[in-house]
UniProtKB/TrEMBL annotation:
Domain GAF: from-to ranges: 56-155
InterPro entries: FRMsr_CS, GAF, GAF-like_dom_sf, Phosphatase_reg/MetRdx
Protein name as it appears in the record: GAF domain-containing protein
Transmembrane region(s): none
PROSITE patterns: UPF0067
Signal sequence, renumbered to the chain: none
UniProt similarity note: Belongs to the free Met sulfoxide reductase family.
A Pfam family this chain is assigned to: GAF_2
Taxonomic source organism: Rhodanobacter panaciterrae
Amino acid sequence: MFELKSHSYASKREHYEDLAQQARGLLAGERDLIANAANFSALIYHSLPEVNWAGFYLYDGSELVVGPFQGKPACIRIALGRGVCGTAAQNRETQLVRDVNAFDGHIACDAASQSEIVVPLVKADGSLLGVWDVDSPVINRFDEDDRVGMQALCAVFMEAVRG
Ligand code: SME
């Protein structure tokens, strides 16, 4: 059985380093994309404070389609270039949105979401797997430590699925 850790950390960085290690252990030995995406979402959603949605949008060759996630039911399809997720997918750059109300074109799946971070997931061959999206009900929830930490977690995920 996988035990979620619940002790406090000296810093966000330390927390993310520990989470990366937990993710490595959780995904080790399994290559199935959906299984690993589901467990990865559950690990992050239940480990990070002030988060109301954490999950994947997977690229189906033409648009993003919601994948495994934790949180309330979400928008199903997002076109490339639309919203925070579609922007991350098109630009292939992490989007750190401190206030979603100030992001032109933000797609509000859950009215509670106030800030958001989206990391593009690019395979070794350069093609797009999808994006990793985390929402918070708190404005300004995510900072540079979150950007670095989330990107490191996504690298662990991509390594596990050999994406
Ligand atoms: N807010 C996202 C849509 C996905 S939900 O937050 C789960 C966006 O603007 O792309």
